[in-house]
Write a structure and sequence with these properties.
The chain has about 140 residues and is an all-alpha fold. It is about 85% helix and about 0% strand.
Length: about 140
């Protein structure tokens, strides 16, 4: 499936070829989803560093932080990954269900893996891989259908 991208990559000879290659791979929804996901992760880390540095943290402030990050993630996936331009209140409702259910799945998965003896780091990475797949499926077939 991605052999065409590898073939096109090997043919890059100048800047124009590179730009054409970048636009070609970004036309693929799955690649856009990965790029936007990486961007969202970076934004979350940077925003979190500043947020947790300047605010005394409690449950309310952590919840506010999660709400802001979730809204940002929803909007970037809506407009960049899935390229949905018009407003739809059903998408927002479905996003709340998607993000809420993924929050529960992630918490249960991580805590379960830790309880059976895996390290936190291992549990985090297993959750990351599973969440990536589940979020793509949820957003593709439910949130932005």
């Amino acid at each position: 499936m991605y052999k065409k991208y590898i073939k096109q990559f090997t043919k890059i000879r100048d800047f124009n070829d590179l730009i054409k290659f970048i636009f070609a791979i970004l036309a693929d929804k799955k690649i856009r989803f990965l790029v936007v996901g990486a961007y969202n992760t970076l934004v979350c880390y940077i925003f979190g560093l500043f947020y947790f540095k300047f605010f005394e943290i409690n449950l309310t402030k952590i919840t506010i932080f999660n709400i802001i990050i979730t809204i940002h993630s929803f909007l970037t996936h809506k407009f960049l990954s899935f390229q949905r331009k018009k407003y739809c209140h059903k998408e927002i409702f479905r996003a709340i269900i998607s993000y809420g259910s993924m929050y529960v799945v992630s918490a249960v998965l991580i805590l379960s893996l830790i309880n059976i003896g895996f390290s936190q780091l291992f549990a985090y990475h297993v959750n990351l891989i599973i969440s990536l797949i589940l979020f793509y499926l949820l957003h593709s077939y439910f949130t932005f259908k």
